[in-house]
Amino acid sequence: MPAIVLLGAQWGDEGKGKVTDLLGERVDYVVRYSGGNNAGHTVITPDGQKYALHLMPSGALSPSAMIVIGNGVVVDPKVLLAEIDGLAERGVDVSRLRISGDAHLIMPHHRALDRVVERYLGSSRIGTTGRGIGPAYGDKVARMGIRLQDLLDPGILHKKLELALREKNQILFKVYNRKAIDVEATVEEYLAYAERLRPYIAETRVMLWDALDRGETVLLEGAQATMLDMDHGTYPFVTSSNPTAGGACVGAGIPPTAITKVIAVSKAYTTRVGSGPFPTELFDDNGQHLRKVGHEYGTTTGRERRCGWFDAVVARYACRLNGVTDLVVTKLDVLTGLPKVPICVGYDINGKRYDDMPMTQTDFHHATPVYEELDGWWEDITKARTEDELPENARRYIARIEELCGTRVSVVGVGPGREENVHRHPLLP
């Protein structure tokens, strides 16, 4: 079977990990293609075990799928090894992991610069996680990056790091009054990581091409989400990679002609972490309700997520941009008990109605939501497994989302557990 892309349709945290886990037993490869340990997927297994994954693809919890970290990911080896060890201690088989030798490394100077620059920006900060992701991608684009394959050649590692730190130490010391980073100590630290990571480093492109040639199923798992895409998101309040469907081809080395299904995940409402525009954000009791009932705190940072009503303009944009074939709507249960459930169907910007995303950042910052109110429901929906078991108003809400997005809603999440879903259409044959 050809490749499948799974991505987020909002600003992240939509529940992609749950969907990956849902599909994990029916695919042969799960590939992470973008981002770094600034992402987080929370997966709850049928026996109630909770796993917070950051670099490892969510398919790690599948009993048989090969798990791959693609060339488009930036890797902090210390974090990855801690995650590998943590999973192994809980009985998860991590021997199936393979990492592209072309994936770029997050180095100590990347983390240092990320933190100090954010503090320096003050109220104008982007809201990064401070884990060095942006600076690592910056060096990659500037052709100063250090890749996983460089860990296998101590001479190249030393040469590349020495060259990079000529500039970075000057910035850290002379601009930000921070301690310079020692080349020798860093090389020694990273060569220790190399010994442990060596068995996992592979030419993953050929591995995936061969799998597709054999007719095996490859699931490409995105981190973050559409509205955080470097090119197509709410720039500059975005991540430093391309978590959209096009980024899957670049970040994993998969040809676009191999992709025949794109699954997008969206919450039944909207959240985002960090700074940036958010037209439907709520600052009232409804916002507190969504945060409290939905447990809206970042998997990676623990930060409170900003919460708002479902934004159909954003969701439709994501569906069209990514060529979405199936939409998964999660956390419908969080809306239970609300007398009215508004959906943003457009924006009012300086008296003009917009049904699609406005072109400029300025207009988006000034967008006022145009809401359509639907009646809520009071019934407990967490035990529903078929559409007929959902209350009529819940069915109407999903049908309206489907209509506004122009994409079929195939699965509806009614609780955090792996089995707590209503299946309207099969995601896989």
TrEMBL record:
UniProt protein name: Adenylosuccinate synthetase
Matches recorded under InterPro entries: Adenylosuccin_syn_GTP-bd, Adenylosuccin_syn_Lys_AS, Adenylosuccinate_synth_dom1, Adenylosuccinate_synth_dom2, Adenylosuccinate_synth_dom3, Adenylosuccinate_synthetase, P-loop_NTPase
Binding site for Mg(2+): D13, G40
Enzyme Commission number(s) from the entry: 6.3.4.4
One CC-aspect GO term: cytoplasm
Residues that bind GTP: 12-18, 40-42, 305, 331-333, 413-415
Entries under CDD domains matching the protein: AdSS
Cofactor binding notes: Binds 1 Mg(2+) ion per subunit.
Chief location category: cytoplasm
Species in which this protein is naturally found: Micromonospora sagamiensis
UniProt binding sites for IMP: D13, E14, G15, K16, N38, A39, G40, H41, T129, R143, Q224, T239, R303
Subcellular location: Cytoplasm
Keyword presence, Ligase: yes
Lineage: Bacteria, Bacillati, Actinomycetota, Actinomycetes, Micromonosporales
GO biological process: 'de novo' AMP biosynthetic process; IMP metabolic process
MF terms (GO), sorted A to Z: adenylosuccinate synthase activity; GTP binding; magnesium ion binding
Record Gene3D superfamilies: Adenylosuccinate Synthetase, subunit A, domain 1, Adenylosuccinate Synthetase, subunit A, domain 2, Adenylosuccinate Synthetase, subunit A, domain 3
Superkingdom assignment: Bacteria
SUPFAM superfamilies attached to this UniProt entry: P-loop containing nucleoside triphosphate hydrolases
Cofactor(s) this protein cannot do without: Mg(2+)
Alphabetized UniProt keyword annotations: Cytoplasm, GTP-binding, Ligase, Magnesium, Metal-binding, Nucleotide-binding, Purine biosynthesis
